[in-house]
Amino acid sequence: MSTEPHRTATRAAALLMITITISRVLGFIREAAIANIFGTSYVTDAFYAAFTIPDLMYYLLIGGALSSGFIPVFTSYLAKDKEKEGWEVASIFISVVLCLLVIVTILGIIFAPYLVPLVAYKFTGETMALTVRLTRIMFSAVMMTAIAGLESGILNSYQEFTASAFGPIVYNVGIIMGAIVLGKRFGVYGLAAGVLVGAVGNVLTQFFSTARHAGGYFKFNLDIHNEGFKQIIALVIPALIGLSISQINLVVNQNIASGLAEGSITALRYANRLFQLPLGIFAMAISTAFFPSMTRQASIADYKSFKATFSLGLRSVLFITIPSGVGLIVLSEPIVRLLFKSGNFTESDVTATAYALVFYSLGLFAHSAIQVITRGYYSIKDTRTPVIVGALAVALNVILNLIFVNYSNLALGGIAFSFSLSGILNMVLLLYILNKRLDGIDTGKILMTFGKSTLASIVMGISAYYSYIYLSSIFGIESKLNQLIHTGGSIIIGVIVFAVMAFVLKIDELNVILDIIKRRIKR
Questions:
Q1: DSSP symbol at 182
Q2: Residue 345: strand pairing partners
Q3: By C-alpha distance, which of 54, 91, 52, 70 is closest to 152?
Q4: How far is CA 355 from CA 21, 32, 330, 352, 397, in A?
């Protein structure tokens, strides 16, 4: 693999890790503010259920379309120095998507009472009525977040990540302000208004950088017979489910949780937010940064470099997310208590959320790896395989959910455990098929990284757990400062132990991560 794509990808990954970290921290401030003001009740259940519908529409319309179809096709034009032709195709795609967004938004607002049962079919009475009202308010955010997604796709194709990385930060700030400034006065409706404000801010953050590339090229065009546009659609249609499979799993989980005790959806939501933290910071950052390089290499049939890039990206993700999952398991309660326990969020809420977090974390490495693996498929313009494998994973998730919730004592833990097991199946099958198709993808190195990282993580987990037991016995868990000391101290000790173990075991990916850190410090 040539050094330039490697350097470009690591620079991009470093930037994305920092900005996504900021965005995720703001996300937790957002969740903490909501928990403090509203606690866990039918109000928060209604808000998060209503938020699911526009969020899912975004992933289906833009998340899958951009990653599977638009970016690979548009990037292939840029790689072949055909920017003008690429923008002809991009103009058609953007124009069609904008028209569809207007239609979807109008229909979503009108038919909200029929959409809500799809994500929370056991809601009744005031909970159902409130969810419908909030859905109608927030559905307008679909258009804004989708436009922001289009801007991000264009910038990523040009391997520019700064503006697109800061957009979600602005989005979270808008929601936080809605919760803190408007929430106390207008209740949950102020929170919904914050979602709209944040979505508009996300668009504006990326607008000028996108306009610099689009200027002189973009023209509103609905010529759906264009061959390049047809190529995008051929890739997009099967991938709408493929890339969004985790989102569909979450909707299934939420539906089943709607039949459990009040606050169950909110507890699952908070646990999933913690689960999403390392997935977003590391897996999303690395997969997003490596995706343009993989696409360019595949478009010129440089499969040797492609496989090296893919393997490095996947191994880097496993190296980070395996210890992250172990850390979340052994420190689930202190982390949840530190971040969320205040106001109306009680100790029983801490226990329920931490319980779900443990089972979510078991599959963290798999769901993180899928972010890289699916983009590997999209780079070689294969969107069908992830759909087929993803459908099997969804089926397993549903079956296991019904078994665990109805025939075991796992309750919320069963829902999260089903999600983890289905993710592991998804990852294994996708890797096996891709390895066969490409006649090898450095499987030996991948398995070696997996084994060594797991061993180092076990030692780290034991160290972090007993460090927490010792520090909490000294400082107690009553105040936030004491919680920060013993939880933060345990995490720091765990990170140091893992780094030492990685050095002793000679895990090569340690150097990649250190390289990323050094680049950001120098800049």
A1: I
A2: 342
A3: 70
A4: 24, 18, 11, 5, 19
Question: Mean per-residue pLDDT for 418-437?
Answer: 93
Domain boundaries, the chain: 50-243, 265-523
Residue-wise burial string across 2-34, b where 16 or more C-beta atoms lie within 10 A, e elsewhere: eeebbebbbbbbbbbbbbbebbbebbbbbbbbb
Tell me if residue 338 falls in helix, strand or coil: helix
Backbone angles phi, psi at 88, to 5 degrees: -60, -45
Nearest alpha-carbon partner for 253 in 428, 409, 393? 393
pLDDT in tens, 63-105: 555 655 677 778 778 877 788 888 888 888 889 888 888 888 8
Cα atoms in the Cβ-side hemisphere of radius 13 Å centred on 220: 2
Angle at 22 between CA 17 and CA 149, to 5 degrees: 75
User: Are the CB atoms for 108 and 139 separated by under 8 Å?
Assistant: yes
- Please classify residue 455 by burial: count the beta carbons closer than 10 Å to its beta carbon, then call 0-12 exposed, 13-18 middle and 19+ buried: middle
Q: 137 with 272: CB under 8 angstroms?
A: no
Distance CA 288, CA 329 (A): 27
Residue 118 pLDDT grade (very low, low, confident, very high; cuts 50, 70, 90): confident
Q: Which stretch of DSSP H or E encloses residue 197?
A: helix 188-214
Buried b (16+ CB within 10 A) or exposed e, 250-271: bbbbbbbbbebeebbbbbbbbb
Side chain identity at residue 509, one-letter code: E
- Does residue 325 or residue 508 have the better pLDDT? 325
Distance of CA 484 to the CA centre of its chain: 26
* Rounded percentage of the chain residues whose pLDDT exceeds 70: 86
Contact criterion met (CB below 8 Å) for 169 and 23:
yes
Q: What share of the chain is helix, strand, coil (3-state, %, to 5)?
A: 85, 0, 15
Give tens-digit pLDDT for 142-165. 788 878 888 887 887 787 777 877
Q: What are the structure tokens assigned to 430, written together?
A: 């996708």
Q: Which two tokens stand for residue 48?
A: 């998060």
User: Which DSSP state fits 408?
Assistant: S
Q: How far is CA 458 from CA 486, 494, 502, 513, in A?
A: 20, 10, 12, 20
